[in-house]
């Protein structure tokens, strides 16, 4: 077992869910609320957690939607207060973990949820009153289990980020066994989400060498194992490495993301049925092309270093750019992911609304080049 303390405590091992009750005791959680979804319940993973927690008084919210909404957060927060819960266990993918972070806020703070959103100036309003949270991810993609943020669709339809160090889970239990048998397309989409995090945070301009190193190592592990994990859902070594890539991408993206996520967050708000990781996979080639013109990308040979991380030998920026774009498109195709936005039902008539959200998104300003509306339109066109 590896026991890591960077941003928060992380425990990685097959079967590590068996320590869940011990972790609750450590943080004085006696009446936990489990935030999960119907898929996790049907897969038997919820029952596995309940067996570990017995005989604790556990409350359950198992209606997390594929993209967490303010309505779901409010419903779960009411249950949390009604049952007198003193802590939260997030059991599931990024949606359940983000939903749990929203509940941790809403169950202990008095204002409307949107008032705590980052772009509304709400980060400073999130205090240490938030309920303690333990995260048990069941997918390898968002890395929300080690992140300070959550993405939630609020009542007015915007997909907003909520960020505070108080929202970081007290501990993340990474159990690769929980991802065994995850459907191939979901494995691919969440895996590309992790790869997007590693690549985009590495391109972000803030100076953070440790984050850059973590991002590159996460990219190497993710790229080498995503096809294996997708093609063989029982490949335990591949599953473990994908969970590592997911965790590392999120550890690194504390320095910031960029236009991939600005666009994905916005489009995910316009059409919540679209999977975030799939959108990231589709947007990556166009955004890397746009970012190639940034001075920080050229100065630090970031394109060449990313190409090296996925096993490509390139001599200059242009060669690296073309190799990365080709490799990403080929990987998406080989994994069975869409080859463009049009295949996902996105049309040019949606561009203005997508761009409105992208320029307002919290990731917009941490891209290595600040994109104009025309830049975003061009990226959308390239991604069709």
Number of strands: 9
What do the pLDDT scores average to?
Answer: 94
Looking across the biggest beta sheet, what order are the strands in? 1-2-9-6-5-3-4
Distance between the termini: 44 Å
Which stretches of 5+ consecutive residues score pLDDT under 50? none
Please describe the biggest sheet, giving its number of strands, its sense, and whether it closes into a barrel: 7 strands, mixed
Order of helices and strands: EEHEHHEHEHEEEEHHHHHHHHHH
Strand content: 5-15%
Rg calc = 20 Å
What best-fitting shape do the alpha-carbon axes yield?
globular
Determine the number of helices (DSSP H or I, runs of at least 4 residues).
15
**Structural class, please?**
alpha/beta
Percent of residues in helices comes to 40-55%
Short description:
This protein is of the alpha/beta class and 384 residues long. Helix content is 49%, strand content 11%.
Pick out its properties.
seven-stranded mixed beta sheet; single chain; 384 residues; two-stranded antiparallel ribbon; alpha/beta; 15 helices; 11% strand
Q: What can you tell me about this protein's structure?
A:
- By secondary structure, the protein is an alpha/beta fold.
- Helices cover 49% and strands 11% of the residues.
- The protein is built from 15 helices and 9 strands.
- A 7-stranded mixed sheet has the order 1-2-9-6-5-3-4, sandwiched between helices.
- The mean pLDDT is 94.
Layout of secondary structure:
Layout: E1 2-6, E2 8-12, H1 20-26, E3 32-35, H2 38-42, H3 45-53, E4 59-61, H4 70-82, E5 87-92, H5 94-106, E6 133-137, E7 149-153, E8 159-163, E9 171-174, H6 184-203, H7 209-231, H8 236-252, H9 259-270, H10 276-291, H11 295-299, H12 302-309, H13 317-335, H14 351-360, H15 373-382
Parallel strand pairs: 2-9, 3-4, 3-5, 5-6, 6-9
Antiparallel strand pairs: 1-2, 7-8
Helix pairs in contact: 4-5, 6-7, 6-8, 6-10, 7-8, 9-10, 9-14, 10-13, 10-15, 12-13, 14-15
């Amino acid at each position: 077992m590896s026991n890591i303390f960077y941003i928060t405590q992380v425990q990685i091992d097959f079967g590590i869910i068996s320590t869940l009750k011990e972790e609750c005791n450590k943080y004085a959680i006696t009446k936990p609320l489990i935030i999960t979804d119907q898929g996790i319940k049907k897969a038997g993973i919820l029952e596995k957690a309940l067996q570990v927690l017995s005989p604790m008084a556990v409350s359950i919210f198992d209606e997390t939607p594929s993209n967490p909404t303010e309505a779901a957060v409010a419903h779960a927060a009411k249950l949390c207060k009604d049952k007198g819960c003193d802590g939260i266990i997030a059991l599931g993918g990024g949606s359940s973990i983000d939903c749990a972070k929203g509940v941790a806020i809403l169950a202990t703070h008095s204002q409307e949820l949107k008032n705590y959103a980052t772009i509304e100036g709400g980060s400073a309003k999130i205090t240490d009153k938030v309920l303690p949270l333990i995260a048990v991810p069941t997918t390898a993609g968002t890395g929300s289990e080690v992140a300070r943020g959550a993405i939630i669709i609020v009542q007015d339809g915007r997909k907003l980020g909520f960020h505070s160090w108080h929202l970081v889970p007290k501990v993340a239990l990474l159990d690769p066994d929980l991802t065994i048998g995850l459907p191939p397309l979901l494995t691919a989409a969440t895996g590309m989400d992790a790869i997007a995090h590693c690549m985009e945070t590495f391109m972000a301009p803030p100076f953070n060498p440790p984050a850059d190193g973590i991002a590159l190592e996460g990219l190497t592990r993710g790229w080498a194992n995503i096809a294996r994990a997708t093609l063989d859902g029982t490949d335990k070594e591949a599953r473990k490495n994908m969970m590592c890539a997911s965790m590392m991408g999120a550890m690194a993206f504390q320095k910031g993301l960029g236009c991939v996520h600005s666009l994905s967050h916005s489009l995910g708000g316009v059409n919540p049925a679209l999977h975030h990781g799939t959108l990231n996979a589709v947007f990556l080639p166009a955004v890397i092309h746009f970012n190639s013109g940034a001075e920080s990308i050229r100065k630090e040979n970031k394109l060449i270093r990313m190409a090296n991380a996925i096993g490509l030998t390139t001599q200059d920026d242009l060669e690296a750019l073309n190799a990365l774009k080709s490799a990403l498109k080929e990987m998406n195709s080989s994994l069975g992911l869409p080859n463009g936005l049009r295949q996902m039902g996105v049309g040019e008539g949606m561009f203005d609304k997508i761009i409105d959200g992208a320029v307002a998104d919290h990731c917009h300003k941490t891209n290595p080049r600040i994109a104009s509306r025309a830049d975003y339109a061009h990226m959308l066109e390239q991604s069709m």
